[in-house]
Design brief:
The structure holds two protein chains of two kinds.
Chain A lengths: L2 H25 L17 H7 L2 H34 L5 H13 L2 H14 L8 H22 L5 H9 L4 H30 L2 H6 L7 H11 L4 H23 L8
Chain B lengths: L1 H35 L2 E3 L5 E5 L2 H8 L1 H34 L2 H12 L6 H12 L4 H8 L13 H25 L3 H9 L4 H12 L1 H16 L3 H7 L6 H12 L2 H31 L1
Classes of the chains: A mainly alpha, B mainly alpha.
Chain lengths: 260, 285
Amino acid sequence: MSKPFFTVYCLIIYAFLLAPIAVVVIASFNAGAFLTFPPQGLSFRWYLVFFNNEVFMRAIRTSLWIAAMTTVISGIIGTMAAMFYVTHAGKLKETVRVAMLAPLLLPEVLTAISLLFFVYSVGLGTQNLVGMIVGHVLITLPFVFINVSASMESYDPAWSLAAQSLGAGRFTRFRRIMLPLIKPGVIGGCLFAFIISFDVFTISFMLKGVGMSTLPIQLFDYLRTNFTPEAAAVSTCSIVLTMAVVVISEKVLGLRIHRF
Amino acid sequence: MNVPSRKRLGPLLLIAPAAILLGVFLVLPYLNIVVMSFRMPGQGTPYGPGFTLGNYGKFFSDFFYVQQVINTLWIGFLTTFICLVLGYPVAWQLARGASTFRALGYALVLSPLLVGIVIRSYGWTILLGNNGIINRTLTGWGLIDGPLPLMYNALGIIIALVHVFLPFMILPIMSAIQGIDPSLEAAARSLGASKVTSFRRITLPLSLPGIQAGCILVFVLSLSAYVTPSLIGGLRVKTMAVTVVDALIDTFQWPFGSALALMLSVTGAIFVVIFGRLTVMKWKA
């Protein structure tokens, strides 16, 4: 393939990747009552409708609350597992890795359904957020694990031994050697866990109780019956929120988040 | 005596929370759903007492469900294949292209992953609908008389699925190509191989692991996709994942729903194993 042709081809693919997202953002500023293109004038009308819509606002609060809980739990469990994986797993290394990545490799729909039946079988039910948070922790755990273990790639057990021989206790060794090393990985993993939890659909859809919709679920329900640009305003706010998290982490904190 | 035992237990405490979480909330639920698929359907309850093979019998005897699994697999194959064809050149560009272009391209490939799947599918409904942007533009230009059927069919589902999963194809292939030593291609060229031959004999075979990973990822993801087929396909075209979820949420047919979900997953897994074997053989040959 010739060079210009190749470049144009790649640009078309990038446009294809961005098109539906750009369309949603543009549609959110539509002044008209329906989704028309080009928009009938620009306005923030649908943002006002959205901010005054208690259903959506409650869904955002639920989503943020669940994402925060998930991030903390997943961050702690995933970091501990990654530390074990790098320093102590020994012969079990491959097993630990596959087990930790399992939630990512198994079909999300099947995991969601299994978990739904399970919480009912053990009497947990979906009246509270426990089932949903457990599901979110499962789904986000691999991302924390990947990020933290990647940040420990350069770890050498000899450092810990050297510190120990110099009289450093278990906690000092953790604080002075391990923590500085894994800090970027932990923050990156947690941010990614937050974003995944905020956006995940199937798990939340199966495990939600009455009146506990997250933002993606509320949006999905809305889209089944409504076609006003309000959904586009909701979507745009959600996009801006996630992008802000990423930009802050990558530009301000100078982190590189590992997605795989 | 206390010290050595604590030394052994210490590291295990690190992995214990993850092990318990995965054991209780992943392994047990998966065992539970297998058992559930053999339970008797209940009257007014999710399931009744006793066990039966009837749920699987119902699946195989009803052509509707078999057909739907075939449709879902077919949509999965096409999505995977189109992702591979569209994604490979982009992956190559990201791995080997000029560096200014590369950073921007990388960001462009990753950014859709940060937007929720509901929003991305919604974007496609705006584009593909009968009154959507594409149809209006084409009608406006006088190219077509009536709207093209882009939504509520398999075509629309595949377009949107390709979009949603394309990054998962590009990224593994990109890292595979990055791992190939460029001097190998240079050597082939200096020995008189044409660009095409050097690509066919060097780059392509060496990037096979990336292709394999990308294909498996996209195939599995598109089989279990729920949101996109549900929003784009509407009530008219349903994939298996949509049928299963709707059956469970609307009608509470737990045992039958479990059997359906397992049949889809097992069929998908069989194809992944076959595909894995085939590519490994090709790889060694």
